[in-house]
Amino acid sequence: MLSSCSLESQVLATEQLGAETALKLKQQTDQMVNIHKNVDLIESDLQRADKIVLLPGPRIHSLIHTYTHLNVPSVWFSSILTCFLSHSHF
Q: Is 16 domain-assigned?
């Protein structure tokens, strides 16, 4: 028969394991939420890219030419492109 001291240490170990498991589960849940947000962002970028493909050649060529020659950070380019697309008439 197990002593009460041994039983108590097993209970404490089990509680600690449960707490560690809960923490790991929270971290993994947060990771999945972030992944989902990134997927949404990628989906949005793809939708914008689809619109760009439909733009008349000279307008988009000019925009891409400006971007590539100015070495504008991609975040800025994304903002510029969003603004450009929101003011374009498709």
A: no
Residue 88 backbone zone (phi > 0: left; psi -120 to 50: alpha; other: beta):
beta
φ/ψ of residue 35, rounded to 5: -60, -45
User: Which CB contacts under 8 angstroms, 24+ apart, belong to 77-83?
Assistant: 78/45, 78/48, 81/48, 81/52, 82/48
The reply to whether 10 falls in a domain is no
Q: What is the pLDDT of residue 63?
A: 67
With respect to residue 37, please indicate whether it lies within any of the assigned structural domains. yes
Query: What value does the mean pLDDT take over residues 77-88?
Result: 66
Higher-pLDDT residue of 20 and 64 is 20
Predicted structure pTM score: 0.46
Domain annotation covers residue 56: yes
